[in-house]
Design brief:
InterPro entries: Transgly_assoc. Pfam families: Transgly_assoc (PF04226). It is found in: Cell membrane. By secondary structure, this protein is mainly alpha-helical. The protein has one domain. It is 85% helix and 0% strand. The protein contains 4 helices and no strands. The longest helix is centred in the first third of the chain and has 40 residues. The relative contact order is 0.11.
Length: 117
Amino acid sequence: MRPTLKCLSIAVAAMAASPGLAQEQVAEAIGTGMGMVIGLTIAIVVGAIVGWLASLIVKGSGSGLLTDILFGIGGSILASFLFPAIGLTFGGSPIAAILSPLLGAIILLLVIKLVRR
């Protein structure tokens, strides 16, 4: 069962059990489900942009939408572990929010390019 449907089914069960608290629980369940959907959508969009930029820098052209999304998300995961481990910080600006995953995606693409040879 999808997380959103699971949250809604829990909310419906809570409404049947106790009508007084049910409205708060329904609002919380719907908010949780929408928060996950919005967070996933933002991760996909930012991953696509970062992956596309990294592909342009490394290869000279994009790698396709799905591949760019995977490179972007993988690069941001790599950057979130690698850069703090070596003591590299970019600050909290919006430019840093794109620069860090972009460098992670470039590193990921270069490693994949070396392994394929």
